[in-house]
Every structure is written in C-alpha cells, then in structure tokens.
Amino acid sequence: MLIASLKPRTMGGTTNTGLLAYALARAGHPVTCYDADESLQLAAWARDVDDFPCKVYEADTPAFAETVYSTMDHSRINLVDAGHAENHPDIVDSVLEVADLAIVTVSPTKPDYDRLTRPERGTPLAKLIKRSAALRDSGQPPTTVVLLNRCQASSASPAKYAELLRSGGETGAEPRWVVLTTRIPRREGIASAVGALCDKPERRAPYDTLVTELAQMGHLPGLQSTS
Ligand SMILES: Nc1ncnc2c1ncn2[C@@H]1O[C@H](COP(=O)(O)OP(=O)(O)O)[C@@H](O)[C@H]1O
Ligand SMILES: [Mg+2]
Description:
- This protein has 227 residues and is an alpha/beta fold.
- The chain has a single domain (2-216), classed as P-loop containing nucleotide triphosphate hydrolases (Rossmann fold, 3-Layer(aba) Sandwich).
- Helix content is 35%, strand content 20%.
- The protein has nine helices and seven strands; from the N terminus they run βαβαβαβαβααβαβαα.
- Strands 3-2-4-1-5-6-7 form a seven-stranded parallel β-sheet, sandwiched between helices.
- Helix 7 links the parallel strand 6 (143-151) and strand 7 (178-185).
- It is globular, with a radius of gyration of 16 Å.
- The relative contact order is 0.19.
C-alpha cells in the first residue's frame, strides 16, 4: 500500500513521516519511504542516522505516479513524504493519483488552519484531494485523515480546531475532514527529531498510538504471523 504524508505548508510533516515509519517498522510492518519533497530532509535523515527504520528513495517528481509508484513493492507499507502542497501542487497531484491513504498534518493554530482551508494563494489541499478522483482507477479520492501535530496539552486549541475541521468550519460550508483522535504533542524531543536518532521515548509513544488508531480504523494491512 501507499500512505501519503501531506501538508499545505510546513507543519511537522517530515517529522511525522519519519517517526510513523519508525513506529510501523517496530510494529512489524515492512516499510519503505519515498521523499517527494525537494528539500530531501527525510532522505538525509535516513542517510545520517543509524536507527532510521528503512530505505528512503528520492522521489520529488511530478511524474511520481508513473515513474515511482510503478517501482514499489506493494506488499510493503510505502510511505511518501510530500513537500508543501502550496508550492508543489504538481507533485502532490501525482502522489494523490496513487495513494491509498493520505495523512494530512496540521497544527491547531489559526494561521495553519487558514493555510489548510482558505490559503491566500494557491489551491486548497481539499481541492487537490477532491480533484484527484478524476485520475484514480477507483474514481474516488483516497481515504484522508488529519493528524494534529504540535498540540499543547494544556491548550483548548486542539479540540477547537479538530471540531472546526470535522464540522466544515464555522459555517459548516467548508470541507469536512476525518480528524484522528491521536494528537502529536508539542515537545522539544519531537521538534529535534528530524536528522536525529529515532529511539527516544517521546519520539515513540505518540506514533505507536497513531499506528494503533490507523490499524483499528482498518487502514493498515494485517501483519503476517511469525509462528
Ligand atoms: N511535535 C512537535 N513539537 C514541536 N515542534 C515540532 C513538532 N513536530 C515538528 N516540529 C517542528 O516544526 C518544524 C517543522 O517540522 P518538519 O517536520 O520539518 O515540517 P515539514 O516537513 O512539514 O516542513 C520544525 O522546526 C520542527 O522542529
Ligand atoms: Mg519536510
């Protein structure tokens, strides 16, 4: 399968992609990553760190669907970190053409909510997702979930923005999103994760919860029994 990690602008997407890959691998899933962001930070993370869980292939091309997807081992969980959708809609279009699941990272703040739902410039991510249906074999957009990142435990903002996203904004007229109950906390240990060792408790726990939630929702393949 292919999971796409998306965001409209910088939101913690690469952090989430790498630590999700780490959690999936520790849960026993065969994982391969693709870096479709021209900054290539995920690829550099894998290159520089001993405990990064898998290979990362450079894949920052608007021909992702044709030239990268066709090379994948589809029995594995393939995880692609896409760049900012605001700046690289062509690459995100191509990723959405073939992804089975899209995880959209959003921070629960007004500027980041606005950049997701009504950017001053560029195409809203919801529109990219919707229009991908025209290019997909199923004729439907990929299943899409929102993962809130940089959540302050004591703040009311995560619950507020989760509700706005679920209910189509203040008017109910905007796109409605499925928001995961897993929230990635705002933590220094996570802030400094990209390019650093994965094996730290604060870099494991929220992403283990994320893997459990995705599995419970039926979004992950079953694990092969080893017995
Ligand atoms: N859970 C978190 N808590 C605090 N800071 C975070 C967290 N996740 C990411 N960050 C910070 O957010 C910034 C963007 O993260 P990054 O993963 O590079 O985002 P993107 O790939 O979306 O551009 C970085 O400065 C990183 O340190
Ligand atoms: Mg990034």
